[in-house]
Structures are given as C-alpha cells and as structure tokens.
Design brief:
Elements (H helix, E strand, L loop, with lengths): L1 H11 L2 E4 L14 E5 L9 E5 L5 E10 L2 E5 L15 E10 L2 E4 L2 H31 L1
Antiparallel strand pairs: 1-2, 2-6, 3-4, 3-6, 4-5, 6-7
Length: 138
C-alpha cells in the first residue's frame, strides 16, 4: 500500500526522500536526500527505492531478478536483501542531494558501488573459508 502511494507520487512530481543508514556508503551518504522517479523495469546496477515488509523505505542497488522476485543489496553490505515483489518497488533513484549540491547517479556510481562491496565480500569469503577449515580439521 505505502509503496503504491509513493510510486504514484513519484510518477506525478519529483519525490525527494531523506536517506538514513550506511548501507549505501558513499553513493548515498546518510542524511542526504534521494530523488525517486518512475522508471522502466529495474536493471542491474541501478539504485532503487522499495518498501520492505515492515513498510520502511529502503534504497539499495538492484542486482537481479529471480523466480522469487527482485534482489537488491546495499553497496557496503555483504549479503543481498530478501527478494521482493513488483508491488514493493517504488522507483529508480536518479539523483542524490547533500546540502545544496545535487548529483545525478550514473555509471560512475555503479563502479563506486561495486568497489565499496569488494572489501566486505573478501572478509566474508575468508571467514567462510576459515570456518570450513576448522570444521574439516575436527
């Protein structure tokens, strides 16, 4: 319900929402505002807003579509979010405003987002490997 109302609002006028949290790292710093616009179906690498099951608005990068739904993930988070349905999508994030500065999101943000995830992914992979080795040595 909330996602539908926000989606309709974004379709009629610019919809700015304040972002809180660190999951998007430098792409969407906490306290900045994001501009959400109506868009064609999401594509990998784009930043999208959606409502989670509790009704909270989440801004994360779109990863892929599976049989279970759309998969999104924060740039600084190791694991993706639970898959969501079409009805939970609000719209594509097209710009970020921090203070008086507004910057559009584009291909450079995709690169920055990917680079922010690499260190955490490496730590997670090393932890899994260490766990497997400990279990094997028992």
């Amino acid at each position: 319900m909330k996602a539908r109302l926000l989606r309709e609002a974004a379709a009629t006028a610019p919809l700015w929402i304040t972002a809180r949290g660190t999951s998007m790292g430098r792409t969407v710093p906490t306290g900045s505002s994001v501009l959400i616009a109506r868009s064609a179906p999401p594509r990998p690498g784009q930043v999208w807003a959606y409502c989670d099951l509790s009704g909270r608005v989440v801004v994360h990068r779109y990863r892929r579509h599976t049989g279970a739904g759309h998969v999104l993930q924060g740039d600084t988070v190791t694991y993706p979010d639970a898959p969501i349905g079409d009805e939970q999508l609000i719209g594509k994030v097209t710009a970020v405003r921090r203070g008086e500065q507004v910057r559009s999101l584009g291909w450079t943000d995709r690169c920055v987002g990917a680079s922010q995830r690499i260190p955490r992914a490496m730590v997670a992979r090393a932890s899994r490997m260490a766990r497997r080795l400990r279990l094997r040595d028992r």
